[in-house]
Every structure is written in C-alpha cells, then in structure tokens.
What we know:
The protein folds into two domains: 10-178, Rossmann fold, CATH 3.40.50; 183-378, Dehydroquinate synthase-like, alpha domain (Up-down Bundle), CATH 1.20.1090. By secondary structure, it is α/β, with parallel strands linked by helices. The protein has 16 helices and eight strands. 51% of the residues lie in helices and 10% in strands. The strands form two sheets. A six-stranded parallel beta sheet has the order 1-8-5-4-2-3. The longest helix has 22 residues, at 208-229. It is globular, with a radius of gyration of 20 Å. The structure holds fe (ii) ion.
Amino acid sequence: MPAANFASTTYSLGHGAIEELSKYAAGKRVGLSVDDGVVAALGLEERLKTILADAAEVKVLCHMQSEPTRKLLAQPIKDCQEFEPDLLVAIGGGSVMDSAKVMWLFYELPDYDWDRACQYFQVDPFPGKCELIALPTTSGTGSETTCCAMADKTADEAAMILAPQIRPTRAIIDYDLLSSLPKKTIAFSGMDALSHAIGATTINWSSELVRQVGLQAATSVINNLVDSYNGDQTARERIAVAATLAGQAIDNSNCGLAHTIDQAGGEFHIPHGLMQAINMPYVMKLSMPQPQYADLARQVGLQGTDEEVQEALIERIFQMERDMNVPLCLKDAGVPEDEFLAALPRYVEETLANPSMNDFCYKPDAAELEKLYKDTYYGI
Ligand SMILES: [Fe+2]
C-alpha cells in the first residue's frame, strides 16, 4: 500500500477573522466572488471597503446567485482574465467558492477548455498568477478546503473539476459570517456535512486519518446541528468546524453512495443538502453492519449490541431531521411519483456504471439499488 497523504487548506478561524483579509490583500489586485444577498444581509459592503483599503485595486468579478453553470460562468471567467488579479476572494456558500475556483483555473490556464479542465487530476500546474482565499458563509459543502468545483449537474454538460491546484490557498472561517443563516440552510447544509463525514468513512481505501477525521466530524454534527438550528451560537461554531473537517475527509477520500444516488436532486430541483439528508439514512440501513457506524453510534452515546447501536444511530439521524422539519423522503419533498418512477431504471443503470461504486465498502446490486431508490422516495 502506498503511504497515505492528507491535504488541507490553511485556516484562519474565529470571530472577526475576516479582518485577516486586509493583510493578504495589501498591495494586491483583488477579484471578488460574492453572494450579494449574503454580503448585504451581513452588512459587509462598507466593512469590506475598509478591510480592502490597502489593496491596489478591487473588482467584483462574479455574483453567483444559484448553482453555477458553464453559461453563467462564461462572463466572470472573461472578466477575471481581463482584470488579472493577484488574489481572488470568495465570500459565500459552495456555489460562490466553486465559481472562484473555476475562474482561477481558466485565469491561470487560459488555453484550457471545459473538457480539458474536467479531466480529473490531470490539470497542469498553475503558473502561479494568483491565490484564492475562501470565506464560507454556510457550513456544509466544505468547498473552502476541497480541490473540487461543481459547475453544474445537467447530464449533457456535467462539469466537475477535480484538481489540487484549485484548493483554496486559505480558508477564513469567521463565525460572525454565519449569524444570518436561514434555518433551512443550517439544516440542509449541516446534513450535507454529515453525509460527507459518514460517507468518507465508507470508502474502502480511506486512510485511518480520513476515518478519524470523518468520525469526529460526524459526531460533532450529530451532537450540535439541532442546537445550531435552534439558534445556539456555540453549536453553530462547532458545526462550522465539523463541516470543514468533513470537507477535509472527502477531499482526501471520496463521498459515499448517498452522493452517487443523487440524480433526482438536479432533475427535480431538490437542494443538494436535502438530497443528502434524505439519502443518507437509507444508504446506512442498506449497507449496515459497518464497524464505522457502530463506532459513531457509541461515540454519540448509544448503547447496546453492534446491531442495536447501528439501528439506533439511523433512528437518531431521522429524529434530527424531524426536529429540523426536514422531509424524510422525496415524496414528502414534493417529487412527483410518476416522474420519479419513470426515471428510476435510468438512475439504477447510471449508478451501476459509476466508477465510484468500486470505492464503497458495500456494493449493492441492481435489485438492492432499486429498493434503495424506492426507500428514498417513499420512506420506510
Ligand atoms: Fe455534498
């Protein structure tokens, strides 16, 4: 076995950590990728002017309001290439950070097209024109520490970039940026983080370091997410840290089966975090027993035999979802039954053909996958 490596970004962490930006931006041409709504809600417009006062020039290059697509990114990429920043700064959720990563790649490698950029781990070294600092305003995607950018999820134009070069140079996790999070976002993005944390421990080639990071992240999400949802600020800070740990876990491994069976999310416009909340417990039920589930169950205080604690863990996750008013199945999330059932054979086929299936510690066959998809639709 080759030695296990573990990559991560560098962090600045704490209340008011955004102020750190001033020292990294001094004398630089700074290109911003922002969510205008979040910047306004946090009252950051004027504050950013002060923080970036010593920058040589500042320009907003991207205002990504939704999941980025190739089309939506075309102009920001062009603007970035023309502006020639020394530093990109992303302030927002996963879409905003991923947009900045994509701009960074096409700025560093202007001869690249999407097809070349999307060849996993085959991107050429960057010449080093600029760096990227990510300031997450949600806690879930882990994008601030991953080498992944999702540009859209349509079947004919899938555009996921995996390249260590686009891992942000630094993540600034300022707890104060999480103060205005809507409850739904807390619930959905937190369940995405839980899916990352648990999923990474189910990858058959995950290192012990990944497993322990994933286990700790999952423990913290289970212990703190409902309190964060109910407004507890200390719990929200713990979730911010847990989410970025979960990001590290997938960045050094892979997401689990719950992420592979998420086709309905793009097709029926179900938020990614909600898809994960729905998929994850059914995937766990299908794939148990797994020693890492039993470890997690005991770490969150459940007692009994291995089988009892794993069943209890799945029920605990369902209860978290009930406590946060998260639908437990796609039917309750409003997905039309006839359309879902019509798509189901294709979902099974796509999942069986997905190369990630070789990574999972449990590999379902076609019949098990069909049942799994039906469980995610109807619940159990
Ligand atoms: Fe995810």
